[in-house]
Design brief:
Elements lengths: L2 E5 L2 E5 L12 E3 L3 E6 L2 E6 L8 E2 L1 H16 L5 E6 L8 E2 L1 H7 L1
Parallel strand pairs: 5-7, 6-8
Antiparallel strand pairs: 1-2, 3-4, 4-5
């Protein structure tokens, strides 16, 4: 049986001797999100380039909607995990600049 371990925002496969692992790894990279299927699990990683933390803005939200639609139509992905590429932080909150536009 394939196993996975989520530790500090990283997914790593545990290799079990004598067990055959079937994997259908396909990676789709966007500006803020990466989508990869490993052993039937979609790994969706939030990682805004050049930023210390991930924040919810218009671009990230639109990209996340696209990734969710991809996951919904991906027959090789039976489950999904959301992780962050930023150490110690998942999402800091809403993008303040975006909120100022709404006022």
């Amino acid at each position: 049986m394939a196993q996975a371990c989520l530790r500090l925002g990283q997914l790593r496969s545990l290799v079990v001797p004598g067990v055959r692992h079937l994997s259908s790894t396909r990676t789709v990279a966007g500006k803020h999100l990466n989508y990869e299927v490993r052993d039937g699990v979609a790994v969706i990683k939030f990682d805004t380039p050049g930023a210390k933390v991930n924040s919810l803005g218009e671009e990230l939200t639109a990209e996340f909607e696209e990734i969710v639609n991809k996951f919904s139509s991906d027959g090789s992905a039976k489950a999904a995990v959301l992780i962050s590429g930023k150490p110690g932080c998942f999402i800091a909150g809403a993008d303040i600049k975006m909120l100022e536009k709404v006022k």
